[in-house]
Write a structure and sequence with these properties.
Layout (H helix, E strand, L loop, with lengths): L5 H7 L21 H12 L6 E7 L1 E2 L11 E2 L4 H21 L6 E8 L7 H14 L2 E11 L6 H10 L3 E7 L3 H6 L6 H13 L4 E8 L6 H13 L4 E6 L21 H17 L2 E4 L3 E4 L3 H8 L3 E3 L2 E3 L5 E5 L4 E4 L2 E5 L3 H9 L5 E6 L2 H16 L1 E3 L6 H7 L1 H12 L3 E3 L3 E4 L1 H5 L1 H6 L10 E2 L2 E2 L6
Parallel strand pairs: 1-4, 1-13, 2-3, 4-5, 5-6, 6-7, 7-8
Antiparallel strand pairs: 8-10, 9-10, 11-12, 14-15, 15-16, 17-19, 18-19, 20-21
Bound molecules: iron/sulfur cluster.
């Protein structure tokens, strides 16, 4: 098992993106608006043969977890659900109108949040059916949802399974009572395991559990217990994320005792425990933070070098374009990224006026495209062949600065550089964000502003 010494960890522990997109969101500009998105949709609609991914953001949660870095609206008012579904379907009509007549189908349909099961079961059905009427699924499409076990009922699962959801992802984070108290998320093992059982009984063919390491009071003993309990539920996939501490961006994170948070070295030890436990439970590490059973299609794709990564995480379904709906949601269409308006009232007003609620975006340049492919190779394959990127000479010429930075990392044992390309080492896999950062043309000068760093730390 790899261990990284303290000096090396400290040197690489710096603010850095997770690269769910390249260029990353802070680079996008509000000069990209509804008209730009309209043009991208019209162009995308003409490419009849390619599939889309589709993402819906449901921002509501009944309470705030203090570690959370997502876009969340806290509410217990069920009336909000009906109005929200109405507006998302109206937004879908607008997007559909701008796409025009198209034969493009949906290969991957995913709901995230917030808490998608904040919507009562009948509203979940209405939203899913309404979206599929406007954007039909391809045969065999992946249909997945993120749920919070504390608010998700058997009836939710029945409806979701009946309409076609077959992958489910549940937040766990940690089962230790002291940690749960400190993060304002009390969730028993019994509630979670019952939901896993129900999901399996109702035909969900993939259950993912999310863990977070780096939370207050997490220690090796209690985290080992959490990992044992996770093992008992026999998930198909596990995501084990490093806690992103960004209290200057997410003020509620200040409600957790910072002095009780593990140091970089302690975080490493926690992640190593997860690695050992999950590999011991017949799972394989996939890309950054993810694990899957050796029989899972993610492992097959990882071995074949065909794994892909988008805003929804690692996937085997490669669709270059992703339609997105809901407040603050992020999409990717015809070589551009776009993000919706961030507050519900303004987003709704815009949709009710018949306009795309685009708040900002970025149209990728040729250089962006090339660097994005490099970063995808590193994050998904942990290797890069010069031959796939214009050949050795071209690569060395174009990315001389990056290769200079990588030389230092190579001497630290993070990768090897040969005449054919780059190969990330086991140590480098744990610091893959740092390696990707070497190719980020926007990063210098972009890592922080007056309000503080824009990214969480890489360790
Ligand atoms: S339930 Fe999920 S999205 Fe909602 S506050 Fe907690 S962590 Fe954030």
């Amino acid at each position: 098992m790899v261990t990284i010494d303290r000096e090396l960890l400290e040197r690489y522990d710096r603010p850095g993106p997770r690269y769910t997109s390249y260029p990353t969101a802070p680079v996008w500009a509000d000069s990209f608006g509804p008209k730009d998105y309209e043009a991208r949709l019209a162009a995308a609609g003409r490419r009849d043969e390619e599939p889309f991914s589709l993402y819906v953001h449901i921002p509501y949660c009944e309470s705030m977890c203090w570690y959370c870095a997502c876009s969340v609206v806290v509410s217990k008012d069920p009336e909000k659900a009906r109005r929200y579904v109405d507006t998302v379907l109206q937004e879908a009509d607008i997007v559909s109108r701008h796409l025009g007549e198209t034969g493009r189908r949906i290969l991957q349909h995913h709901w995230g949040g917030g808490t998608p099961t904040f919507l009562p079961p009948a509203e979940c059905r209405r939203l899913f059916v309404g979206l599929c009427e406007r954007f039909p699924l391809e045969p065999g499409a992946e249909v997945s949802i993120e749920v919070d076990p504390r608010v998700t009922t058997r009836e939710h699962l029945e409806v979701l399974a009946e309409v076609g959801f077959h992958r489910i992802s549940m937040g766990v984070q940690d089962f230790d009572p002291e940690v749960q108290e400190a993060i304002n998320r009390v969730q028993s093992f019994e509630t979670t395991s019952k939901l896993v059982e129900d999901a399996r009984a109702l035909g969900f063919d993939s259950v993912n559990l999310d863990l977070v390491y780096g939370l207050p009071y997490q220690g090796e003993k209690s985290f080992t217990r959490t990992l044992e309990l996770v093992g008992e539920m026999q998930p198909d996939r596990v995501a084990c994320y490093s806690y992103a501490h960004v209290p200057w961006l997410k003020k509620h994170q200040k409600l957790m005792p910072e002095s009780a948070m593990p140091t970089g070295e302690q975080k490493q030890a926690l992640f190593r425990l997860a690695l050992e436990a999950l590999i011991g439970a017949d799972m394989e590490p996939i890309g950054m933070d993810h694990f899957a059973r050796s029989t899972d299609e993610l492992c097959t794709a990882a071995h074949a070098g065909s794994l892909h990564r988008n805003f929804m995480g690692y996937t085997t379904r490669v669709a270059e374009d992703m339609l997105s709906f809901g407040v603050t949601s992020i999409g990717e269409v015809d070589g551009a990224f776009m993000q919706n308006i961030k507050d519900v009232k303004t987003w709704r007003q815009s949709v009710e006026n018949g306009e795309l609620p685009t708040h900002r975006g970025h149209r990728r340049s040729e250089d962006d495209h090339r660097r994005r492919r490099i970063i995808l190779d590193l994050m998904c394959r942990f290797r890069l062949d010069y031959a796939d990127h214009g050949g050795r000479e071209m690569f060395k010429q174009r990315y001389a600065d990056a290769l200079e930075r990588l030389q230092v990392m190579a001497s630290d044992g993070l990768l090897s550089i040969s005449d054919d390309g780059l190969m990330v080492s086991e140590t480098g896999k744990l610091l893959i964000r740092n390696l990707a950062m070497a190719f980020d043309a926007y990063l210098p000068g972009q890592q922080s502003d007056d309000e503080g760093p824009k990214f969480s730390r890489t360790v």
